[in-house]
Specification:
The protein has a six-stranded mixed sheet, with helices on both faces. The protein has a single domain, classed as 3-Layer(aba) Sandwich (Molybdenum Cofactor Biosythetic Enzyme, Chain A), CATH 3.40.980.10. It is built from eight helices and six strands. It has about 170 residues and is of the alpha/beta class. It comes from Caldiarchaeum subterraneum. This is Molybdenum cofactor biosynthesis protein MoaB. It holds the Pfam family MoCF_biosynth.
Length: about 170
């Protein structure tokens, strides 16, 4: 058995995962009690459940560094193994998810962003370079920032989803 196969075999198979959406437009609709659809958050929940995990949708937060960071830290404090944040990874001034999360990372999963952008390039071309998707380890847990488009969430979790248990196994190894 190859080392990565051994690690996968030892990895936890049913993780507790929280999904959060960072979006000013959806957040303001939420607080005004207006109807809105969070297709990206719904996609993430569905895909992660199909992979066999216990997933809880924590809702929409504003594109605000402190609100995003606080919500992620609360989820980690509540014992979630993984926190997935959709949205806020672009280049506009409101896109602050990366700035909210990077200071929390003990280790960053640099290769994740590279793989995502290569695969995204195959689908959408050079606009893939505009994504700042990232992932990192916080106290043996995984925090992932995915772009907010529904198709990007699908692609991201198609690529990263099967490796999540492996990542957790390695991050918690002593």
């Amino acid at each position: 058995m190859k080392p990565h196969e051994y690690h996968r075999a030892e990895s936890p198979h049913n993780l507790r995962i929280a999904v959060i959406t960072a979006s000013s437009s959806r957040y303001y609709k939420k607080i005004r009690n207006e109807a809105y659809v969070d297709e990206s958050g719904e996609n993430a929940v569905q895909i992660l459940r199909e992979l066999g995990h216990s997933v809880e949708y924590l809702g929409v937060v504003n594109d605000d560094i402190w609100m995003i960071r606080s919500t992620v830290l609360t989820a980690l404090g509540e014992g979630f193994d993984v926190v997935v944040v959709t949205g806020g990874t672009g280049l506009s001034p409101r896109d602050v998810t990366i700035e909210a999360l990077r200071p929390l990372f003990e280790k960053e999963v640099e290769g994740w962003g590279e793989i995502f952008r290569v695969e995204s390039y195959r689908e959408i071309g050079s606009a893939a370079a505009l994504s700042r998707t990232t992932a990192g380890i916080v106290n043996g847990r995984l925090v992932v920032a995915l772009p907010g488009s529904p198709e990007a969430v699908k692609l991201g979790l198609k690529l990263l989803g099967p490796e999540i248990p492996h990542i957790i196994h390695i991050a918690r190894k002593t």
